[in-house]
Amino acid sequence: MQLHYAPPCFQKQTIFLSGALNAVAMAELRNVFDIIANSEVTDVTIDFTHVSRLDASGVGAIVFLFKRLKNTQRTLKITGVHGQPEAVIRLLRMEKAINTQFLD
Fold it and tell me: How many domains is the chain partitioned into structurally?
């Protein structure tokens, strides 16, 4: 998994992920999510355009960030979801709680 993100702009942060969002990727990603959750950023977007796989560890990290943001009246949006990650998100009905944009 590769992770790219720009400095926050006007209280908004976009995280660009690529590859597999799995247990191996969680060591790096959990630290980034923790930093963002403890920052002043109010709107967080995770771009899934280049994410090929999503497993339970990845789901757990997303839910962790979502809960931390929601508890402080901040928002999380997931964009560019397709393929296997889309199937997992729809199966778990995560789009009902987290603003999610699927690719057509």
Answer: 1
